[in-house]
Structures are given as structure tokens and as C-alpha cells.
Queue: 2 jobs
Job 1
Amino acid sequence: MDIFQYLLIPFTHPLLLVFVAVGVFAGIYIGAIPGLSATMAVSLLVSFTFGWETNQAIALMIGVYVGAVYGGSRSAILLNIPGAPAAVATALDGYPMAQRGEAGRAMGIATTQSVIGTLIGVVALACFAPLVSQLATKFSSVDYLLLGVMGMMMVGSLGSKSIFRGLLAAAIGVLLGTVGMDTMTAVPRFTFGITYLLPGVNYVVAMIGLFGVSEALVQITTKDVQAVKQNVSKIIPSLDTIKKYIPLTLRSSLVGVVVGALPGAGGDIAALLTYDQAKRTVKNPEVPFGQGAVEGLVAPESANNAAIGGAFIPMLTMGIPGDAVTAVMIGALTIHGLKPGPNLMTTTPDLFYLIVSCLFIASIFLVIFGLTGVKIFTKIVEIPKGILLPLIIILSVVGSYAINNSLFDIFWMLGFGILGYFLKRFEYPVAPCVLGIILTTLLEENYRRGILLNKSIPALVGSIFTSPISLILFVVIVVMFTTQTQGYKKWKAKRELTKAAK
């Protein structure tokens, strides 16, 4: 059989199409529920499908994976509760659009951008898998450390009018991210002898509390807030709108593919990086970022779905998972007698191209299921606050408990909700706090690993200038720092002019 015949396998076996469709449909609604992630869904499918025929099991898992990554945008836009970590950046501009009555438009844009991002990820997987995988293998611990520093440089872009407030919120996140057992020495840190603190802080629990519960508390204390009537007359974006944002879509999707191919990075970091990139490069958005800018949806939604194709690249070519979901899928393939790695494309090329084909088909079903039911979904925002806010808190409790089946996670979630309420009340952004928790492990582990490999801190710093990848990342960080400083100066000058005018 040639490549073309391998790609047509799902079309010659209609049952595979059904499994992909069912997976996408289920994944969208699983992803929309805070705490129910793609990783959890695929993990459950491994035990559910181990007796199935291999192609059917893979088709269902891929459908759920694609649908769940997109599904997180729905609750992010409608309720300001990211259904998945990859949707944190989506909430920053998606929710303000819903508050203006444009939830239908926001969900339409999120759907089309997710589809385009998925397709670009599929093309990258099919055409450039060996090339991208070789690039990913060249990333050292120093490079991952610099990538983490780049992430921390985004605090000025994540909903903060003051870089210092963003840094303080991020510092709180980093501090909370160090709670638990040290990953290298197994020494408990900041646990105060409490056993439940040993596993550390789950950033999904933190995300639910900081975004969902805090928003409910803010709205409870705000009197006479009326539900906003949503305009759902036009959900599907026009062709001109899609063309307008194609350059940003392509840039964000390519970043998503590369970041997705880095082991341990994933769609959440890709979405945050591209949101920051969009905020820096888009000169004249319709409205400022953080207030409902369309560009603030285009970038992260393109990137997090493009990262799916990227995550499969190291998994299939080297046997190294790109993210948590592909780590689970390696286990699933092993159960079915397959071994992802360098020999996969030569020994079982049909499996490689089956995955490519199923990802393409999943993107088609994402259009169908993503754009249907939008009018019903947008009615959530119009529910009276007296009914909606308790539902948000109940949903947050259920989602937090479902992650580890632990009551202690509910307490963490409520604690983060209260923290988020006070942060918002005093105009501190909550997104950098989540970012700090997410990046703590990446920063700490690679910093310490880099010191062990280079024997000293000066040698670690010197190694940055001996590697082309490290040098490029370092230059990017310098540019980001410079623009952050210039942005702060402009903000300070504008603030002084405003005071003078008063």
C-alpha cells in the first residue's frame, strides 16, 4: 500500500468515521466542564478500549483529544472559567466579548481558528515530523529554562495594567507551585507536616478557583448586574474576517506546532506564548487586548489546537510524549502491541498515516459540532445571576473533586477562589498567578538540572552563548524585556498625563 491508501483507511472503514465523530462530540462537552480534561478522558478510554481493534481505539481517542482541547474555550468565553489550561488565554478576551453580548461571535471565531490550527498541525505532522522531532531533541535543560523565563516575561500581557502587579501575582503563583514534595530530593516543602500537601498544588484546581469561583464572588458582591442579551444572529465568521487574521493564525499555529513538539510543554504554554506574541505584534486591534480583542481569541485558539499535531511528532518518531495526552496514548499503543519510536514509520506506516487521517477528519467534525448548539450554549450567559452563580460554584466543586477524587482539592479550589476575589478587587490580574504555578516545575527542574550538568551557575550562564537555540531564545528574552520596559514607561507617562489633566 502507498501513502495515499493509508490515508484513506478511515474512509474505507465507515465505523472509524463514526468513532472519530463520537469522540469529537464527547470531547467538546467534556472539555467544556472545568476539571474534566482531555488527559482524564483519554485515560479512561485506555481501560475501556483495550479489548477493541487498534484502529477503532485510536480513532476514538483522537476524536476526544481534539474535541476536548477546543471544548475548554466554551466555558472560558461564557463563564470566564477555562475548561482546560489551554483555554486560560482564551478567557482573557473571550469573556469580555460575552459581556458585550458577542458570545456567539466569539465562539464562532474560536471554532474556526481551532479548526485551522488543527489542520496546520496535521500538515506539520504529515510533512515535517522528522525535521521537527530533530529540533525538539536538540533542546537542552538550559533551553527549557529559557523557555520558562520567556513564559514568565508574559506577565505584563496577561490582563495587567501594571507590570509590577503582574509580577507580584506571578510570584504568588511560583511560591504556591513550590508547595509539596521536591521532585529531585523528595524533601517536603511548605507542607507544615500536612500529608495532603505533599502532592503539591494542582494547577487545574488553581485555575478553576482563580477564574471561576473568584468571578462568582465578584459578581455576588456587585449589585444590580443584569444578564447581557447575546447577539447570535451571525455565528460563523465571514471569509473576509478569516482572511484578515490569516497572518496571525499562521504565526500562532507554527508556534503551537513547535511548542507542542517539545516534551512537557503542550498547548497551554503554546496558547500563552502566542497570546503574548499577538499583544506585542498587533498594532491596531479593534479594541484593546483584555477588553474583547478578536486577536486575543485568534492567537491562543490557533496555537492550542496546532499543538495537538506537534505533540504527536515526538511521540510517533521518538517514543517521547509531547504532552500528558500523548503520554497516555503511548500506553494505549503499547497495550495494543505497538511501540512508538524511530521504527514506527517503517514497521507500521499504516498507523502513522491513520493518525494523520483521523486528525484531519476530527477537524472536519469540529466544524460541524463546534458551530452547532452555539445558540443554546449562549443562553447560559443570559441565565439570571441568582441561578447562574450557584451553578458556577457547584460546577467548580464537581470539577475540582473529579481531578483526583479528593475533598482536599475542593478546599484548595475555594482558597484560590477567595485569593482570586481579593486579587480582582484590588485590580491584580489572576492569569499570571496560574502562569506562575504552571511554569514553576519547568523553571525549577531545568535550572537545577542545568547546574548539575554545567557544575556551576557561571558555567550555566556561559552555556547559553555556546548553543544556537539557547542564543536565539536569549535574544528573544532580551527583546521581550525591552518591550516590557518601554510599555511600562508609556503606561506611566499616560498615567501622569491623566493625573495632570484632573
Job 2
Amino acid sequence: MNPHKILFVDDDPNLLAAFQRTLRRQFSLDTALGGEEGLEQLRVLSSYAVLVVDMSMPGMNGVEFLEKARVLAPHAVRVMLTGNADQQTAIDAVNRGEVFRFLNKPCPPETLVPALESALNQFELLRVERELLEGTLMGSVKLLSEVLGMVAPDALGRGQRLRESMRLFARAVDATPLWEMEVGALLSSIGSASLPARLLQKLSAGTELTREESAVVRRIPQVGHDLLIGIPRLGGVARIVLYQNQAYDGSSFPSDDCAGERLPIGARMLKILNDRMALEADGIVKQRALETMRARTGTYDEQLLETCFLCFQAFLENSISATQPVRSLVVKELRVGQVVVSDILTREGLVLVGAGNQLTAMILERLANHAELGEVRQPVLVQDPESHPAKPSMAMAAHL
């Protein structure tokens, strides 16, 4: 017997009982009398592999049920039973209910059983594809963030903090898909990996840039977009990165006609988070920061701006905790996930890892190499990570 479960939804109790008698030896199945009972079943057990639903039910027809079921069981394969297979029914079922197969009523076992087996096989195929895709995507994101941490650790630390803030911000405005928002924030500075080391050092130190250097830095979002756009399923993330500095009225980079509501909502949110973080770094916080940003007419989505300051009434999400104890460790004692409390420096005073960065495997490898050459000031101050909800991989899995 296939271990995946099937849910039959129909308003005819005799037909549901017949399904149980006929199919229970071959399939694991539950039944629900009508759409409302079916939705309640899905709230209790959302892991059904196949939904078999009658089109013509009182109160809630099959298409309406499948529309609502898509939220509760997004990966279930959908089969429609109908005695009214007209063209409009078919169009609605495909477009609104995402139906895998139609079956005419009455449906004999010799037709129903192969259809259910085919639906279960489709569910398993899609499950394997999702797992492979998620692994590929998250592997790509992890690799890119690791490389960024090796080349420009300050940029990675900034992305880590932006990701945590973006998670809360996106939930507050119900922006979806959440994983795209988070990854867009995390990799917002991935284009920094293309900058010369000297320019990265000037950015880290806050040194004034020349006109030519400013022009190079201005292109960071474009470089990041061009890097990400070639990775399957990261097209939305690439657009967030590209438009992260674009003003709401379209007056900033890039110089195209994308402005206002046409800008990706993730980019509009990231623009607000980036600029607010810059103000806070200069000591402009809370109401003063809000008033400063309100005065920049045409720069921000005004509704999102107000919501941001409701989400974060004090500071943006900071990876350094006010409650976690600070540990003093030598490099060989450091672990992935720990947060740097104060800059990790070379003996000459160059910043290897800035405060607020979360240690990754590649950053630890870089620190170990410097430490082996006697170039790191030790011990260093770190905190163990606090637990956080819903990492991007979990959010990603729900939308693939």
C-alpha cells in the first residue's frame, strides 16, 4: 500500500462509503462530507498527497474548495470528479484549482485506480523535484554568502542583519514569497565581491570615495543582479537586488522606467531598511530618523515607510544580543553561527571580521589561516547564536 494519503471530498455519503470499501486495501484514504468538512480535515492533516473532489457540491463547489485547499495543502495533487465536464468547468478547474486530472462520474474502479496511482506518482515526482531544487537553491545561496563573507565580511554582516529585519518587515506587510525577501536582503551586497580589496577597505573604514570609486560602488546592485539572474528560481531575488537603491519615483539607479508600484515590493522594503540602517549608524534614530526619511519626497513607498517604523520602534534587528553572555575565545575555539561582538583585527589593525557578523565556515577558515601566520589579535569576543524562527530554507520549501 502506498504510504501517502488520499482525501476524498463529496456531498454523497453513500459514494464516500463506496470509495472506502473499494479502495481501502490499495490506498490509505480519508473521506470528508462536503467542502467545509474537507477543509477542516486539511487543517488537521495538511500532508495529503492527493485530493479527489466532486465538482458539484452545495455551498462550496469543487473549484472553490481546491482554491482554499491550495493554501492548506499546497503540494497536494488535485483530481476532479464531475458529471458536468463543460468547457468553462474545465477552464475554472485548471486555472483556479490547478487540477491534475478530470474523471467523469460515475467512475468505475478500473478507471479510478490507475488515475489515483498516477496522481500519487505525480506527487512523489514533484516532492523529489522540490527537495532537489531546494537543496540546489539553498546550496547556491550558502555558497554565495560564504564567498561574500570571505571577500567582504562587512557586506555579509550587513546582509545578515538586513535579513533578520526583512523577515519581520515582510510578515508585517504580508509580502510574499518570504524566502525571496530574506535571500534578497542577505545577498543585497553580493556585488561587493567584485570590488578591489583597496576599495573594500575604504568602504569598511568609511573613508571618502573618489568620483570614480563612487561610480564603481554605484554599480554593485547591477553586478549582483547579473550574478543571481543565471541561477534557476532566483529571478525574483535578482530583481530585489537590482532595484534596492531605486527611489519610489524612479529617480535613482537603475535608469529605467521601473518606479512606484512596478518596483518589486522587496526592493522597496530593502531601500527603506538600507537607508534607515545608514541613519542609525550616524546616530539618527527613532522619530528623528522617520522625520528625516519622510522629508525625502518621492524616495520611499510612504505606506511601507510608516509600517517599518511601527515594526522597529527603536533599532533595526541587531545580531548582537543584549542578553546573551559574551565569550572570550581564541580562533581555534570559534564555531559556525557565533556572532562577533567586537571587530576581529589583524595585528596591524585591519578588520578581518566586523562586529555583528555571524561566523560561517568560510570565515572561520580565513581566520584560521591568518591565525596560523600569527596575524590575528586574540582572544576575540563572540556570542553564541540565539534561536530564530523560520530560516529562509523553510520558507523556501513552502513555496517551491
